[in-house]
Amino acid sequence: MKQVNIFPLIALFFLMSGCDRQESNWWIKGQIKNDLNGAVMNGITIRAEVKKLQSGVYNDIISTVSEDQTDGEGQFELSWKRENISFCRLVASKSQYFDAIVEVSPDDMRPGEPFVQNVHMTPRSDVLINLSSSDPSALIKFSVFSADDFCSCNDEAEYEVVGLVDTTIACMTGGGKWLKYQIQAFGSGGNVYHLDSVFCEPFVTTQIQYSY
């Protein structure tokens, strides 16, 4: 009796099963790098969040549908069951980094085809601004100028303190960048105008102190 080699048939079955599974999934893959130096980042948790169609209506509930961790080359792969979605975003998180949030248009995604979306993460620098005065009549105005989207030090247009004061303002900015600031002080000791900048090292708390 002629023998039939069934191994190619088995391999073909598993190959077709894999293809069918991918065809029924949304699929996103990419690489995560450090935005400051371009180094690949391993061990980063990244998840896909979506808004789904429920009962024929798109709702505003955001749910996590897939999660992964980057490998030694910073690569990740997210896959989940294909269903109607109106919104999709990737969220990557790591301690001492700002969360990286990247929106992906569902119109650009194709079932069974990997959509490539690379992600960059920005290291964080904490900032402590200490303002003090021994003059009861003092007025101190402190301003920060930054184009960094992650900088919270300029959330207020101007910080203002009056009289006898010793206060500390805590904020944060992207690490590895210069932070420009301005101090204006008025009181019995005369008027002061000071413009300066400080380099904010990643993962380090930068301190700015001024006393009138």
What does this structure look like?
With 212 residues, this protein is mainly beta. It has 2 domains: 97 residues, Carboxypeptidase-like, regulatory domain (Immunoglobulin-like, Sandwich); 88 residues, Immunoglobulin-like (Sandwich), CATH 2.60.40. It contains 1 helix and 15 strands; from the N terminus they run αβββββββββββββββ. The strands form 4 sheets. Strands 1, 4, 7 and 8 form a 4-stranded mixed beta sheet that branches. A 4-stranded antiparallel beta sheet has the order 3-2-5-6, with no helix packed on it. Strands 11-10-13-14 form a 4-stranded antiparallel beta sheet, with no helix packed on it. Strand 2 and strand 3 form a beta hairpin.
